[in-house]
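Researcher: Please predict.
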Amino acid sequence: HESLLDLDGIDNPVLSLAEDAEPEEALQPRFCFLKKEDGENFGFLLRQEAGQSGHIVRQVTAGGLAHRRGLQNGDRILEVNGDYVEGMEHFKVNLCVTKCEFFSLQMLCLIAF
């Protein structure tokens, strides 16, 4: 019985392909608390992008509130004001962010690399 694939020299081809990828579980989430003043905005856009899971932070305004509090372009939002949003429809997550009470927003984010 002859194999169609020549795997000579590869101990475990599946492991070899996956070893370079950083497992998502190893990423460390962080909290980001934003409190805006009347007339101020949070200073970022929230997007859902093809090829990426979750809700992604984009267009962080340099010097803006989100930037000053450490939010970065590419961060992924996991939680908004205590509500887990990972599987939530994107328009609902946007509503959670834009309609937050008392002009404060607490988010749990995965840091972009």
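Model: Helices lie at 13-18, 65-68, 90-98.
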